[in-house]
Amino acid sequence: MHFSPPAGNAKPWSVDTVGEHWRVRQLGELLRLGLLTELISLSLLGLLAWMIPVATRSPPVLWAGLLMMVVCVAAALDSLRYRRKPPAVLGRVSTRWRFILHSGLQGVGYAGVGVTLFPLINPEEQFLLGMMLCCVLAVGATAVATVRGAALAFVVTMSVGMALALLRDPRFDVRMTAYLLLLQGVLTVAIVLSVWLQDTGFRARLRAETDAQQEREAVNLLLRDFESQADDWVWEIDAQRRLVHVADRMAQALGLGSSSALLWLDFVAAVGGDRAAALAQRLREPTAFRGVEVFPALPAAGLAEPACWSVSGVPVFDTQGVLVGWRGLVRDVTLVRAQARELHRLAHTDALTGLVNRHVLLQRCTQLGARQTPGAEPEAAAPALFLLDLDNFKAVNDTFGHQVGDQLLQEVGRRLTACVADWLPAAQAVLSRLGGDEFALLVEQPMAAARRDALAQALLEALRPPWQTASLRVEVRASIGVAECKPPCTDAFRLLQNADVALYEAKAAGRDTVRVFNDEISGRLARRTAVIRGLGAALEAATTPEGSDAVQGALSLHYQSQHDLASGEVVGAEALLRWHHPLRGWMPTEEFIRIAEDTGLIVPLGLWVLERACRDALSWPAHWGVAVNVSGVQLGSRDLVRSFAEVLARTGLPPRRLTLEITETALLTEPARAQAQLHALRALGVGIALDDFGTGYSSLAYLATLPIDMLKIDRSFIAALAVGGPQADTILRTILQLGHGLGLKTLAEGVETAAQAETLRGLGCERVQGFRFSRPVPVAALPVPAQVGGR
What we know:
This protein is an alpha/beta fold. About 50% of the residues lie in helices and about 15% in strands. The protein has 26 helices and 22 strands.
């Protein structure tokens, strides 16, 4: 007979439950042998009645025999009746005492037979009766040994009765009686010890069973908790692939009420759907597998794509090494696959326009350059890179705001896409948005000069119609720079640089026009040289006490405050370099920074910015941080880490207050060296932020290897909130979840409206900066509390 607590919500294995379980098992063993014992007892009584002469059947003898018969019959009936009782009845203490009483009464009955009959029979019959009683004593005690109280009651009453029978016989002298009592005592002690050992062994077995059952219950509890909480679903099948265990959540996903509806169904047929053959093949091979994808046919749930499950399993063998089934896990990876595709799209696509980003363009330029062969004729047709920049975009942004500017960029993307589709096959053209108002078109098929120029004019013509909305009308104009991809210009960066130079030539020629890079344009780089000289002079002036505050030709830092989105408090500021040219006024930052990077002037310029920002930050509250941009050229500098450490030591700014912002494109030239430099910088104690996340070279490739503390979400994702609808929210949520999952802080830049800030707060973004909170201002205009400043 077996007892275990009910499953589900039944009572746990408490002390009372264990005691009940033990009593059930003890009585179960007793009942298993009880009926046989009573039949043996009745048979012995019949044998005694047949062997003992009639003359000795006195009334006491008859009464003792009758009592014994009644007790045996009652015990046999009780045994039959209680064998059908449920464990709850057998576990009662009263039931245990009932059978102890039965054993005691049986002992009294046997003792009565011996006491009344022993003095009346001859020695041969006494010997036979004594042997029979000794056998009954041993067998009866063994039969009830699992209930220690019953065994002791039986042994004690029979032993006392047998001793009385010896003492009542006048034919024995004192010596013989003492000898027989000693033998009986030895037999009694031996039987008691045997009963004790048998009971101890049985209790040890019960203890082991109890421990095993408790462990099974703990495992089952953990398994049920795992099945109810984890993303994985447990399944188990037999050798015929029939389900013998399945998680309820898996059954519910298949549109069934509970797991019982799946039991004994074919596993492959139940979850296989499309590609079931791959799962069936793996189940034919007795080796573990993982990541087998199946596409089950789920009930219609508004899914945008088919459900996908990943199945893993291990074979189960018996002791003979025969395969008896499989156990494993199923995980729903539908959302994971969709998110992976979306993140891949974000890493290769401009979020605002849907065009490919700079990373993809550079890849295609590199591949195109590798296919070019040296020795081509200078006038031969060649692939070309068209670089397009809107002429009046800054005015649109300044006049109508960035939201309108973003809508204009989307319209430009649509017009350029339509124009390119009319001229070129999709496989031979790569239309990209590089950032800001700059677009690029790479034509991979060779084009004659006339057709190339006609395509450039067609692109300009596609943009010339005014862009109209319900409340405004914008004239769209652009300039285009073209560079041919042919030797020696086959490098992606040089091709882009040449197109960029041609673009500036187009803008200098009056805009809304096209210029093709050639030898003549190369000579016009004098202006570029002049910028380089002016920037060098401005840097030299800024590094001297007399020139640091000069208006003409001065370099200065403006700061855009960064805010904690939950509290709205300022937590730091980003240092933004400004250059006031003596002739041209405030120079576009991107223009002179690009020239500084090309010439290497960015290294000393960046050190000046770092030291100036660190000194300015000393006058701020101690909990404010300062963010400084670091270019890719700086990352390539051999002395970068040493020089940065010297600036920190010289200014006394705690490294924890400094954050270095790195753009994804900064890692492009020498990725391995850049990674090493960032790890060394991080070892100084400064923070590292990945700037313009999602719009550069590879939004995801370096997250696992770079020592990044913060993701700065590009303003294009924030701007898309106003026009992208639920999809824009989903994209932004995905990026924020990615950052939080990697343990990174998140900062959204370009926040311009209260609605954007509220959306970011709901999505869990931690920090923000943008015109909604503050424009970039000189250090004196920062909202620094009075009498503060600390380290």
